[in-house]
Every structure is written in C-alpha cells, then in structure tokens.
Amino acid sequence: MGRSIRIGLGVAGLLVALGPAFAADERSSTSALLPLFNARVPLAGVLSGGQPTEEQIALAGRAGFRTVINLRTAEERGFEWEREAVERSGMRYVQIPVAGAAGLTRENAERLDKELERGIAEGPVLLHCASGNRIGALLALRAAWLEGVDPQEALEYGRDSGLTGLEAATSELLGLAPAAEAPTPTPTPAPR
C-alpha cells in the first residue's frame, strides 16, 4: 500500500476517494454519509472521528464501509453495543485499546498500521476513539516511527487528524522539545 500523510480530502472528498460504494442516492451527501463527531479523513479510504452512534454504524455498513477500528478501552463506557452492531452491519470489528498517554506505544502504532493496511485493502475504514484525540496521537507516532516522517511534520499531521489533549505526550515521544511553558514566578520573600 502506498502511504502518504499528505492526503487531506475532507469528508466531501471521501466520497470520491471511496468510489462506487457511494451511489448517487441519499447516502451521497456528506451529512447523510456519516455525521460523525469531529469527522476527518486522515488517509484515503479512512474516515475518523469520535464515538459513532448505533445508527451511524448501521449507516456506515450500508454506505460500504468494511472495517471499524475502535481505539477505546474496555474500561470506558458507552460502546458496549458496538461490536455486535458492527458485525450485524456486515463489517469487521477491531479494537486496539489506547489508554491515554500510556497507550501511545510502538506496539499500538504497529498494530494500527497493520489493521489500516488490511482494512483499506478490503474497503473503507471507520476509525474512532471517543473524540479523535487518540487517533491523531497514534497516527502522528505511526507516521514518524513507521513511515520515517519528520517528527515536526508528523506532529502537524496528528493535529490535523484530531490530536489535542495528548499533544504534549506525543511531542515527547517524537523527541520534540516541549512547548515553551510560562516560567513559574519565584515567590517574593515577605518583608521583615
């Protein structure tokens, strides 16, 4: 699979990238396609974002998605129904638990890489966590560690892919200097 992090299609461009899976019917508008929270297209054939609803999962199956990759952990609540809904909709379900900064590992980046490669080869992929933050972090690490992308460029790619709260941890793992922090004021001694 040829890889490039420079593909920024937007949700509308996903229709073109995914090809004939999207016939000219009610599924062809971006809002009807999959109104996913924080929707992004970080790679050709991949729609990412926050936690989909059961209805969005069913819509993804009808729209031709073949794989759903979930980065949430079993300890999180609100998606207990998901595996069954994905499989009922004719898609393959993959869970790669990423527990915050502790889950930003080379092993998880490699597993995501493998699952994205397999998933994209089979058809469109829906990639999600709760908000998109873990997606951006893991995609940035994948770009730098596995694809040899410059760390600063990989971090920008991560931001474009949803990285927010895990940016400091991701920057550190990429070997980038932490953002300049405001100096802590030195307390002034009390007058005597």
Structural class: alpha/beta
CATH C-level of the domain at 11-132: Alpha Beta
The percent range for strand residues is 5-15%
Largest sheet: 5 strands, mixed
How much is the average pLDDT?
Answer: 82
Query: N-to-C SSE series?
Result: HHEEHEHEHEHHH
Strand order of the largest sheet: 1-2-5-3-4
Cα radius of gyration in angstroms: 19 Å
The strand count comes to: 5
Q: N- to C-terminal separation?
A: 72 Å
CATH architectural category of the domain at 11-132:
Alpha-Beta Complex
Q: What is the CATH superfamily classification of the domain at 11-132?
A: Protein tyrosine phosphatase superfamily
The percent range for helix content is 40-55%
Low-confidence stretches: 1-32
Work out the helix count.
8
CATH topology of the domain at 11-132: Protein-Tyrosine Phosphatase, Chain A
Morphology call: globular
Summarize the SSE layout with pairings.
Elements: H1 10-18, H2 30-33, E1 40-43, E2 46-49, H3 54-63, E3 67-70, H4 82-88, E4 92-95, H5 106-122, E5 125-128, H6 133-147, H7 151-160, H8 167-173
Parallel strand pairs: 2-5, 3-4, 3-5
Antiparallel strand pairs: 1-2
Helix pairs in contact: 3-4, 5-6, 6-7
